Here is the input.
Amino acid sequence: MEPEDTGLPINSRLSIPLDEIDMQAIRAQGAGGQNVNKVSSAIHLRFDIRASSLPEDYKQRLLGLRDRRVSSEGVLVLKAQRFRSQDKNREDALQRLQELVRTVTVTQKKRLPTRPSRTARKKRVDSKTRRGQLKSLRGKIDQS
Here is the structure.
């Protein structure tokens, strides 16, 4: 996944300009030997949702996500440190941003409430009655 010159492609009609995405190289956490203290291989990606060029409804959906990576100021913060290479971590961070924005571009179909038909209701009640009769036959036989 290589970002184009125009920006980070989201779908065929939408892309995020790269100048709206702030990326900084930072030191990765965790084990890594002597090199981990010298090399800044992790990437800290910051994307200001409110100041972005995304359509307004996408911005609202992103801000409405219950995601701890979105701050109260509306800034999405991603930390990529999965790989040892800074370039791979940069690609990973951009790909994760791309996937997150793609999730809000899909609109879910509004559910239309339905009701069971009269026949379906009758079948349900009849089957319950039959089952109840079957269970009542399982009782102890009275020998008086």
